[in-house]
């Protein structure tokens, strides 16, 4: 019998509660509603990407520059990523987005 919620990921996701992300677009298609986002909570991370909550839908394929900061830390980690999916969180006017990390060129 096949599992209903089969995972397609190669890397295990790790839930986190102490990371925040600030992001900005690297191209001209982040979202029709994009605005300066501020800091948003990271929900989980893996060796290939991360998932976070934020205030506007992002377009699939949009490239982002992200600064990841552990709460209480002063030095962020800067990464680049590509939006793979965005889903609305019902009734909260918020969105969850999955981002795949990409190598800087």
Would you kindly provide a written description of the structure presented here, covering whatever features stand out?
With 105 residues, this protein is mainly beta. The chain is built from no helices and seven strands. A six-stranded antiparallel β-barrel has the order 2-3-4-7-6-5. A hairpin with a 4-residue loop joins strand 6 and strand 7 (94-102). The termini are far apart.
Q: What is the CATH topology classification name?
A: Thrombin, subunit H
**What series of H and E elements makes up the topology?**
EEEEEEE
Number of strands: 7
Helix count?
A: 0
Structural class: mainly beta
Strand residue content: over 45%
User: In order across it, which strands form the biggest sheet?
Assistant: 2-3-4-7-6-5
Oligomer: single chain
List keywords for this structure.
single chain; 105 residues; mainly beta; Thrombin, subunit H; 6-stranded antiparallel β-barrel; 7 strands; 0% helix; disordered N terminus
């Amino acid at each position: 019998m096949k599992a209903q919620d089969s995972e397609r990921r190669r890397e295990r996701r790790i839930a986190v509660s102490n990371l925040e992300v600030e992001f900005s677009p690297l191209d001209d298609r982040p979202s029709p509603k994009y605005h300066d986002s501020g800091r948003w909570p990271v929900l989980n991370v893996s060796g290939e990407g991360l998932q976070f909550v934020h205030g506007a839908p992002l377009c699939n394929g949009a490239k982002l520059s992200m600064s990841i900061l552990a709460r209480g830390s002063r030095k962020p980690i800067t990464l680049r990523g590509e939006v793979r999916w965005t889903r609305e969180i019902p009734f909260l006017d918020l969105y969850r987005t999955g981002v795949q990390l990409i190598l800087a060129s």
